């Protein structure tokens, strides 16, 4: 958010920006570290000084967050693109396709008890509750599909797990491959398993099950669904079927290691696939930063980004297949 003329603008402290945007000072500091959304100026004693341009940029981000978009998807977008997304939504976006309750599978005694205790608190969810352990639920493979006559196939899974072990983590990864939103309340889990599951897009919470924590998880689930609906509406404008966003399966070091395994496999596929994935990663980042002057251009870039994610995911699956051969 830096410009050469920022020094000519009035400046605001982080506390004032938080009040004017509805964001928190904690989030502003965190976004600075993660996404480079820093104040354009610093005072002589190191305090952040936000300009009017910074303030306008953050207000656009707040509007899009309120509509269900995720900060990781919009943090690096230019201000023109953010404005294009905010100014006008597609005509059918006002007819909210998400008004129908979201089919949600709930597994676990405490979680089921919570929803039974608050039957009218979550009208946005069509609940299919299973008061059983995760092991019992996974033991019946048909239950993981959970196509209920009233609620339909789940789009969201809220799962209570006492201990996340390797076997359960494998089942969760398999469930995630069906493009479901999965939220886990767990008691015990090795840190590497938690990180691994979060890397594939599963939300992990070590909080106690109570009204506040469940409310926050439900809110996040609905935000994710709203964002997915927004991208699908964009794709419909161009007669496209938009794939779900895919978390990255390999970091740069893992790709470099994979590229060196060609001699072991008597095959040049690993280095070629690693190169393709690196290229797609770079284009994925680039497509997030393309500017747009209106909703149509922003929609096109959203589609490009989503399809690049899908292409990279397919190449990652191919690399896994080669390495496991």
Automatic annotation (TrEMBL):
Pfam families: MerR_1. GO terms for molecular function: DNA binding; DNA-binding transcription factor activity. Keywords: DNA-binding, Repressor, Transcription, Transcription regulation. Gene3D superfamilies: 1.10.1660.10. The lineage of its organism: Bacteria, Pseudomonadati, Pseudomonadota, Gammaproteobacteria, Cellvibrionales. The keyword Transport does not apply. InterPro entries: DNA-bd_dom_put_sf (IPR009061), MerR-type_HTH_dom (IPR000551), MerR_fam (IPR047057). This is Regulatory protein, MerR. Residues 11-80 form the HTH merR-type domain. The keyword Repressor applies.
């Amino acid at each position: 958010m830096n410009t050469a003329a920022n020094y000519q603008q009035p400046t605001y402290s982080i506390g004032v920006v938080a009040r004017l945007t509805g964001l928190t000072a904690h989030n502003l500091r965190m976004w600075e570290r993660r996404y480079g959304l820093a104040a354009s100026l610093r005072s002589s004693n190191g305090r952040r000084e936000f300009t009017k341009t910074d303030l306008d940029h953050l207000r656009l981000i707040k509007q899009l967050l309120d509509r269900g978009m995720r900060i990781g998807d919009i943090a690096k977008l230019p201000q023109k693109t953010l404005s294009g997304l905010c100014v006008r939504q597609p005509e059918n976006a006002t007819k909210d396709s998400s008004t129908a309750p979201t089919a949600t599978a709930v597994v676990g005694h405490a979680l089921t008890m919570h929803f039974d205790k608050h039957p009218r608190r979550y009208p946005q969810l069509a609940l299919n509750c299973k008061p059983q352990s995760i092991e019992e639920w996974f033991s019946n493979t048909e239950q993981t599909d959970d196509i209920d006559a009233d609620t339909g196939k789940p789009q969201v899974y809220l799962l209570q797990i006492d201990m996340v072990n390797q076997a359960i983590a494998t089942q969760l990864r398999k469930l995630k491959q069906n493009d479901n939103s999965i939220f886990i309340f767990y008691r015990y889990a090795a840190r590497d398993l938690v990180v691994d599951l979060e890397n594939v897009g599963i939300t992990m919470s070590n909080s106690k099950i109570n009204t506040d924590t469940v409310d926050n998880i439900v809110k996040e689930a609905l935000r994710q669904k709203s964002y997915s609906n927004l991208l699908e509406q964009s794709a419909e404008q161009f007669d496209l079927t938009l794939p779900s966003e895919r978390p990255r399966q390999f970091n740069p070091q893992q790709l470099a290691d994979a590229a060196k395994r060609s001699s072991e496999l008597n095959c040049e596929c690993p280095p070629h696939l690693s190169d393709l994935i690196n290229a797609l990663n770079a284009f994925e980042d680039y497509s997030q930063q393309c500017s747009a002057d209106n909703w149509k251009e922003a929609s096109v870039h959203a589609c490009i980004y989503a399809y690049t994610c899908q292409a990279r995911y397919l190449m990652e699956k191919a690399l896994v297949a080669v390495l496991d051969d």
